[in-house]
Specification:
This protein is an alpha/beta fold. The protein has 2 domains: 85 residues, no CATH class; 128 residues, Rossmann fold (3-Layer(aba) Sandwich), CATH 3.40.50.1970. Helices cover 34% and strands 19% of the residues. It has 9 helices and 11 strands. A 5-stranded parallel sheet has the order 8-7-9-10-11. Helix 4 links the parallel strand 7 and strand 8. The longest helix is centred in the last third of the chain and has 14 residues. It is globular.
Length: 227
């Protein structure tokens, strides 16, 4: 562990970076930003910059992002996904390999996190917004658009029915992302999670609540296993 004095003079511990993950797994290490201080994130980014490595930091709100950028001006804040990146983003070639669908506009932050993670991996994606089952015709009207895509990611809150319906209509792998959106018994995404885990659609893959990054990496593994 590498000690780093923070802005208050205390010593904080930073985790060792997995610099071989790209070679070993085909995906670069991402940094969880929600429970790290701006000083900790900045120190990690400075280490990666010194090694000429790109970086993705997830779950960074606007105030923390501003503090990090004051320490590492080269990093970029993506407000729509609450993420930071360091280094140039890849420019994926060819048509989108992944479609990312949302049940509603409230699911967009999670979907944008998945899209940005795929971009960082050089994978093009297409965003299909507000096609939840409350208006099923919206999804049915997009099926032809979805057919050429190799993997689908479906982000949904409330009861989380979108991935089940989608997996019953198309043959591609579907990765379900429960989103922490909904009233009362939705319980911060738990109702959607349980519904997706209990889905009657065979072969549906489910990641954790709000885990857009994890869904993107699952899609990346599928794409690289079946080039």
């Amino acid at each position: 562990m590498t000690p780093l004095p923070d802005q208050d003079g205390r010593i904080e511990q930073l985790a060792e970076l997995d610099l071989e993950r790209q070679r070993r797994l085909g995906m670069a290490e991402a940094i969880w930003g929600a429970h790290k201080s701006a000083a900790q994130i900045a120190a990690i980014l400075e280490r990666l910059a010194a090694l000429d490595r790109p970086a993705l930091v997830t779950r960074v709100g606007e105030a923390k992002a501003t503090a990090v950028q004051a320490l590492v001006p080269a990093c970029r804040h993506h407000l729509e996904s609450n993420c930071l990146t360091l280094g140039p983003l890849a420019k994926p070639a060819g048509p989108p390999s992944v479609a990312i669908l949302t049940g509603g506009t409230s699911d967009l932050t999670v979907a944008q996190e998945a899209a940005l993670a795929l971009t960082c991996a050089g994978v093009a994606s297409d965003l299909v917004v507000d096609v939840g089952v409350a208006g099923l015709h919206r999804l049915l009207g997009r099926l032809e658009q979805l057919r050429p895509v190799r993997v689908l990611i479906a982000c949904a809150g409330m009861e989380g029915a979108l991935p089940t319906v989608l997996a019953g209509l198309v043959p591609q792998p579907v990765i379900a992302v429960p989103v922490s959106v909904g009233y009362g018994v939705s319980e911060g995404g738990r109702a959607a999670l349980h519904g997706m885990l209990a889905s009657c659609a065979p072969g549906l893959t489910v990641v954790n609540i709000d885990n857009g990054y994890g869904a993107a990496m699952a899609a990346l593994r599928i794409l690289r296993a079946c080039p």
